[in-house]
## 1
Amino acid sequence: MDGTPLVLDNGSGSVKVGYAGEVEPKVVYSNMYTAVRASRHAPSKAATEALEKSNARLHVMDHGVVTQWEGLVEVFEAAFDEMKVHDPSQHPCLVTEAPFNPTVHREVLVEKLFEELRVPAVQVVHSGALALYATNRRTGLVIEVGDGVAQTVPLFDSYVVANAVQRRDFGGRDLTAYLGELLQRELGYKEALADEVWWTQLQTVKERMCRVATQHAPSSRQDPVQQEYKLPDGKVLDWEQGLLSQCAEALFQPGQHLKVDEEAVGIHKMAASSVLGCGLDIQKSLANSVVLSGGSTLFPGMCQRVQEELQRLLPSAVKAKVTRVAQPMYAAFMGGSILASMPDLRKTFMTRSEYLEYGASFIQSKSVSLTKPHPMP
Ligand SMILES: Nc1ncnc2c1ncn2[C@@H]1O[C@H](COP(=O)(O)OP(=O)(O)OP(=O)(O)O)[C@@H](O)[C@H]1O
Ligand SMILES: [Mg+2]
């Protein structure tokens, strides 16, 4: 596989890594690093001891932004090891990033890849757009909600309409925390959210039992993966429990329910802004081709609910049609895999010699042209 580019979909929750041209990542790694590893970088002896005593693991990223760079390098190294990539200098890397990240973020990412992972060439692309490439469509609106970031990305004829992209900092991790609050409020649970065991249980309940409410409620038989869940104290949560549909409701009213920016609007409003932010001539094509991507769009009822909400916000002549990509958690990887296989795209990678000559900021001028200006409405 020497010379084959690697694709790294660097998500707030997990990193998906594999070779260009493959349909699925080879390795999916939780984007966390253990406190023992973190302790090597702790500022004091006391901090080191405290970290080593706890089994806590730290998130490498927070809402699409890396907060633990040494952790990111370790996660990437571990993923390479598992893939048996013994010599990263043989593999150009295509890495994803959320739109509207701080400029410096991309530069530090590039520096780490060249300096510490010793890769020969790098390209960084926005994750949301890639999901549409994975569906083989050229025009459509991607609504991507992962672990830390919600984004809506309109593409026309394969190009991102940059001025109409929306991003907000909320995702599945916030929903898990909200589910913990709902259990506390409604059933009296007092477990600390920082407790990793409890957190894992909450995440399991969320993924297996929560759904979104729709005008035509999904039947309990076909939709939930699981009908009941036994909590640590023996209490049983069943499918009828109201809080199970309240949790994902926060995707439509994040400012009200999640610990995020109070002004944050729901994914349906972000989607409507993206459609209406594009030229009148393409609004119908975009609304008619909305695709959901990212793990937090996996809730039963999601396509229908987003379609209902979006339709309310669009002119009646602009019909919304919403579907979900086949593998929401891997769609960005799959799009990246397609992109990195294109010889023309490979020519856009920033090389090590360019890095050595011009420094990491040169990546800004190498940004791959997924966008082209489109007239405003
Ligand atoms: N069946 C499911 N129902 C609801 N949520 C789910 C389901 N499966 C996974 N998730 C959630 O999806 C999130 C992970 O999705 P994804 O891998 O797309 O995010 P990411 O790429 O790590 O993060 P981001 O792109 O936001 O930086 C987690 O919060 C996880 O709990
Ligand atoms: Mg992601």
## 2
Amino acid sequence: MTIQRRAFLAATGLLATPRLARAQQAGRLVILGGGFGGASAARFARDHHPRLDVTLVERGARFTTCPYGNLVLAGRRDVESITFGYEGLAARGVRVVRQSVAAVDAGRKRLRLADGAELPYDRLIMSPGIDLRWGAVEGYDEAAAARMPHGWIPALQQVTVLRRQMEAMPEGGVFVMTIPDNPFRCPPGPYERICMVAEYLKRAKPRAKLIALDAKNGFSKQPLFQDAWRELYPGIVEWRGASEDGRVVRVRPAAMEVETEFGDKVKGDVVNVIPPQMAARVARDAGLADESGWCPVKPETMESARAPDIHVIGDACIAAPMPKSGFAASSHAKHAVACAAASLAGREPPAATYFNTCYSHVGPDYGISIVGVYRGTPQRMEEVPGSGGISPRTAALGERAAEHRRLEALYADGWYESITREMFGIA
Ligand SMILES: Cc1cc2nc3c(=O)[nH]c(=O)nc-3n(C[C@H](O)[C@H](O)[C@H](O)COP(=O)(O)OP(=O)(O)OC[C@H]3O[C@@H](n4cnc5c(N)ncnc54)[C@H](O)[C@@H]3O)c2cc1C
């Protein structure tokens, strides 16, 4: 450990906390991952549990959100406008440690950081997100992703590469997108992406086509997306589900070609492969994932089903029927913090209610959404009957349709603004 780092940890009480100082703390809450779940947890813990000692460990200096990445593809946003730093959280008293976590020692209740330092915790909240399953689609590895970008993890470069490829695409060219089976990050995300790419093509390359090859037959907000493709992008968007041989099993980056289950070969000028996914490595290495690659949790507290004193939240955990969304991760975060604080204070955890809303932009002044409220019980996570639903279809809205869609697009922007301000301690 460097002297600087030792001095930092000693100054913050993390290295060897004197008994007196410890007694004044309600406990050491360490949060792994500064994305939607982790940053939200840090903010909520700092604001609502002032006696907790809150440390956030994140490997990146800045965080580029996946939400609104599709708007970068449409040319409506730039990457800088969806990228945030951790100064706001630090200014609010969150101890931000910029390090990669090499290992979680659940037995000794410590994290081992990449620089060799150890970080002890009383309670750990992990929100490390996802990894891509390289090789699950034959031929799709990290080298292939340079030619056939996924744009599916907060990797600024990937969205930028995809956008540049779209700009370089010839008029009359083909954009191919491959979509995985459930579960995966952001169930409506690929379909919002279809819309945002189509919006760009309609404007910049009106003779181009987008072919989406899907490993499943049904998807989130399907009737609304399909209405929008017919209304806004006729002749541009073609979607093929699994029963129409849409499942892609192989890619050939050199030929910019993908191959389906039954041998159809589809070539694209741009090929966007969204591969199958799993919980991020740090969670799998810690033994927190099951054979599915995702982490089972107790729905009433978001505690790991596999290790004590650890909550696993966000995309990495199994919280179905909740979707893997940023909104859901933030909702898990608030409940996990409340449960951690209660447990450290020797109290019972509060009742578990979680929320989700996923907005999608589908065209100019045209937004749609899906909403759900969920209850975590010792047996399962369940949607509260009658609590949610999707936006009405255009036919049902009649002459109010345009105004309704315009308002939903505004609500989407409001949601993005408020969740990012909350997560990053901006206001
Ligand atoms: C195209 C697209 C559009 C989307 N749109 C929406 C939307 O409109 N609304 C919505 O609610 N959701 C949306 N999502 C989903 C949303 O991005 C995810 O659900 C959300 O990011 C999950 O939060 P998380 O905290 O689990 O993971 P992340 O936000 O990915 O955060 C994980 C963090 O952990 C860090 N980390 C991982 N391992 C380590 C380690 N070993 N050491 C240190 N740090 C580590 C990572 O660097 C990262 O910062 C979208 C996703 C995509 C791909």
